């Protein structure tokens, strides 16, 4: 009996999740775009040298590199740079 | 006659369309291939190009295309009786809208997820791009003017709906911020938002002091006011239009995730809940059809005006913009296009169907019907109000008191119309900017210049036409213009589809026949309106603004027809425009069944 009710519960949960996904499909894309734009701005501030902008606090941002290395690859590709423009970051 | 039979017969026709006709389109006409790599896989970027489950995408597509328009058109077209309206909604949905929406989706999928505008530019050339931009410009202007008119009218006739509508704005802003910061499900917050709005609607329906009744505040209907010497109703109309356009100016210049998208999220739930309640009410209440099947007293002939009075709900060119703009980029497998496109069109048809039934079952008898629909002008003024009353009567079937149901129905329509208004002004700004860039008038591309121009043009269109009862009573005159420009857009998509099928050596008749039908009706109806109604040559006085827009639309319709004839005669030109992506079903890394 309890197995059957759990099955129903899972089915209803799946249905509600599908319903929620259906409603937020358009919204999600816009949120992702907005978040990506904000991330791009942060990356530009942190990795300004890649674009030829002097970075006065590179000593401090250096510490952030390991944490941002994965995002860095996507970012430089989005910025239209096929390969990593920085010598000391060889992500690809 | 029991109204359930109308629903059963039309839904049976939809079922036939879904089971048989759409299968024929999928297999024989569009040749859907499960091995074809859809743009969602080919250009997957996690934002626009995302493979999505077909039922999730169907729900999103349907809630994006259905709004206030499939309610307003049929409610006005009931003037000719329920027979012509039902026949056009039933047959149009199955043989025109389904073919068009489904086809636009497939065409875009086969052309790298490009929009109809880009495909028109590619297939026909720069002329087509400009033609397309101008038609959309006119369509959107009409959408703005008509929906601003609809909202102002509903605010005047249902003052209890104003407060709950206003409450949607801060709640949508809060939801937008919440999802940006925390992500996750919005189901519970949006249900809370709905509960707050509907709870407020219950209160405002019963407590008069919570109603924003401008007409009453200005002294009641017929009272003269200090505002430009207008009577209370036209003065209230003017105030609401100014307030609305002010709101739309601000809303349309905000990022979409802040207000527009969360509003859409709430509205999509309102649409599904509303449709569910109305159909449940119909089957539980089983009301009798009291309106005549054909209004023999109608002085304005139904042919060809019916086909431009009901656009959304029978066929709407706007759907191609959604299908080719967003849905085509999210289609997981090509065969899913049948569910998303065709079933999406049937969903909107179901909304138009319940509108016809709500109005057809409202009256005590044919006499009351004739009183409300005494002329086409009267139908334009009363149609929407009749739907609100008829729908609240149907909602009574599930136990909702009629006064509260009327407020909620008005609230739902206003929410749909306001969201459309927001996105339409935004689109209008982009188009004005694009035309400005095209013709070297660069200031037009600036956000506030474009928005001011869009708002100014909308205000002009909604305030100038005079229906004889003063300011705001002429809005119904714009409705056929909206329908016509919407049909023209559908005509362009159907032309592109026919050319594509013709080039592939398939039978273009299922798309060509609706295209020729639409263009003929459009040209016929516009000639009638422009020459005999708005030019001043007939019995009516000249309406120069409507004349100018009508003449431009007529010119565009003829232009499309000539382009179609030219391209069908020059097959070699079509061959040169073959898109390689269309011919390669299996691409590396793509979906395989």
Structural domains of chain A: how many: 1
Percent strand of chain B equals: under 5%
Biggest sheet overview of chain B? none
Helix tally of chain A equals 3
**Pattern of helices and strands of chain B:** HHHHHHHHHHHHHHHHHHHHHHHH
- For this structure, what is the CATH class of chain B? Mainly Alpha
Q: Determine the most extensive contact between two protein chains.
A: A-B, 20 and 31 residues
Strand content of chain A: under 5%
How would you spell out the order of helices and strands of chain A? HHH
Number of strands of chain B: 0
Shape call of chain B: globular
Structural class by SSE content of chain A: mainly alpha
Termini gap of chain A: 55 Å
**Uncertain residue ranges of chain A:** none
* Number of continuous helical runs of chain B: 24
Radius of gyration of chain B: 23 Å
Question: Which keywords apply here?
Answer:
heterodimer, A: 92 residues, 3 helices, elongated, B: 593 residues, mainly alpha, Sodium/glucose cotransporter, 24 helices, 0% strand, globular, disordered C terminus
